[in-house]
Batch of 4 targets.
Target 1
Amino acid sequence: MSRVLCSIYKSSKKDEMYLYVPKAVGLKQVPEVLMQMFGTPRHVTDMFLVPERKLARADIEQVLEKLASQQFYLQMPPPPESFSAHAQDAPAWRRRSAADNADSESSS
């Protein structure tokens, strides 16, 4: 499978969970149990997948292999990040929020 026109759907139940399916097949081959867990699929985009293409959070070879063998690929959400170990790396809004909470606790 060298080139696949793929439809990508976002889960309505789980942030950052996506289903990749061949556009020609659609969601027909996705098991019902998975669809119940996934929720109402929200179409994000269609794109051609080729081995040379880079994907942000998935290995293109694994995606293409799963599309060929089972007609879908489920991209799971990334694990939650812990900013407490590296507070300096946290987004500015999170650092401000943490500082505000510390100020309110010390004044009570």
Target 2
Amino acid sequence: MYMLFCPCRSIDAPLPGGKDEGPLGKIVSGVIKNLSGKERLSEEDVNSAWRDAAGAAAAKHSRPICFKKATIFVNCDRSSWLYELTVHKKEILKKLSETLKGRKVKDLRFRIGEIKEGRREKTKI
């Protein structure tokens, strides 16, 4: 591997070719950002988009777990909610694609699973 480093040149000095990249940290972070591709979605972004797309009632009984290869995996607390979300899958996909503009969402996978109480909105009785 070839590294562009000269002991007689300051790290903050412009690189050959007239490009001023600044400190070495900026260079490394730029390289890492380019290697990783698009910016990753945060868990908050996906949860917010899910609430908007699925609706408040469905969001109380389901939770997106992960986003891999353009597929969002969603845990549902009951089989009735799994069925309901499966029936409305195309509509939810369309809304998610509109909300998460920079990312393609090609599929939703629903399964029965645990929904952590800490994140779940509590309702008053």
Target 3
Amino acid sequence: MKYTKATIYLDENIHKALKIRAAMLSTSISSLANNAIKESIEEDAMDLKTIRDRKNEKETPLNIFSKELKQERKCKGKNINWNNDPLTKAIGKIHLGVSNASVKHDQYLYGP
């Protein structure tokens, strides 16, 4: 693999953490940075592919999806009381103010 030299400016604390991590793993800061950036780019590419692949999918209203899911659970021998499920109660109560939360959730939860 061919490498290109680049100068980046890191937050002091991030640099310290990278130095410690690199020493613990017997690797270089450059290797850690390359791997992290590569993983981020691959994750973005997978997200974009998923969006493209699902672009023409028919949307299912939540109430129909919920009924289908309940029926599927009953078929597997499990009868779940969805009215007491905390996640079911949370549906529609969280408003993030962004339209792409399903795609960029990691960024919104953990930062850039």
Target 4
Amino acid sequence: MARKKSQTMKPSGSVSRQHLDAMIEKATVDCNDELEQISGLFTMLEENLALPFNTALLGVDVTVEEIDLNDAEEIVAICKRGSERQRVSLLDLPLPEPKPAGTEWIEAYRRWAKGRL
């Protein structure tokens, strides 16, 4: 399925706060608590984030192969380099340029998480 570029992207490539808020609302509309909200955001990431993609962590190129929930119920990226794998919080994951399709959902998750901290 072909993806269209979002019409709400700012010139810098980031999504407007209003659009992020609408995305968060869409992902969490029927949620009763924080764990359900995380699950809703995780589902939207699974459905929309183009994987795998390459990025750099501490100057080292890695491949983000998948996303998952860790034991603390945080969304993490599973990063791989060679035979090594590492879980990195999506809150801390550097995004490459150009950004892969669906990264607006990472921005939405970050905005949601910032609001609850």
